[in-house]
Write a structure and sequence with these properties.
Helix content is 39%, strand content 17%. It is α/β, with parallel strands linked by helices. Bound molecules: ligand CA2.
């Protein structure tokens, strides 16, 4: 059976505020810019993108569950849930799709509590500290993983 020609883009809590505060950490691009960058990168590989951003964990979990039958992979910036959420990690693990974890800022160079990610070891791809361009990089790396899995 052929893979769906679609990726799920998930942005977690507070990322709707991108471009409005803390430009020294997150830059000036908005969530709409992030979604456009991701769609453009995916389109170069003939893939469409379903984008979800929510400040509610359950909404993100439902979107991840829906992706199980509709998407070939997931690009996710879990926001602060990265450092707190076993539930989000379990959802990603349960759907068993290739996952790319993206962080706009360099979480390894910030507060200690940002150094641990519950998502890290259920993700095949990690992109950190590349600004919003990191979403395009994540798509490239995720497509390589998906293509490799399809070949193998
Ligand atoms: O660097 C990233 O992409 C983060 O995932 C962003 C999260 C943070 O909790 C992670 O440690 C790293 C926070 C997103 C908050 O976004 C804001 C955007 C604009 C203004 C304020 C917050």
């Amino acid at each position: 059976m052929s893979l769906p020609h679609r990726l799920l883009l998930v942005n977690g809590p507070n990322l709707n505020l991108l471009g409005t505060r803390e430009p020294e950490i997150y830059g000036t691009a908005t969530l709409a810019d992030v979604e456009r960058i991701t769609r453009d990168a995916a389109a170069r590989h003939g893939l469409e993108v379903t984008a979800v951003q929510s400040n509610h964990e359950g909404v993100l979990i439902d979107a991840i569950h829906d992706a199980r039958t509709t998407c070939a992979g997931i690009v996710i910036n879990p926001g602060g849930l990265t450092h707190t959420s076993v539930v989000l990690r379990d959802a990603l693990s349960a759907v068993a799709l290739p996952v790319a974890e993206v962080h706009i800022s360099d979480v390894s160079a910030r507060e200690e509590f940002r150094r641990h990610s519950y998502v890290h070891d259920v993700a095949a791809v990690h992109v950190t500290g590349e600004g919003v361009g990191g979403y395009a990089h994540a798509v490239e790396l995720l497509v390589a993983v998906i293509s490799g899995a399809a070949d193998g």
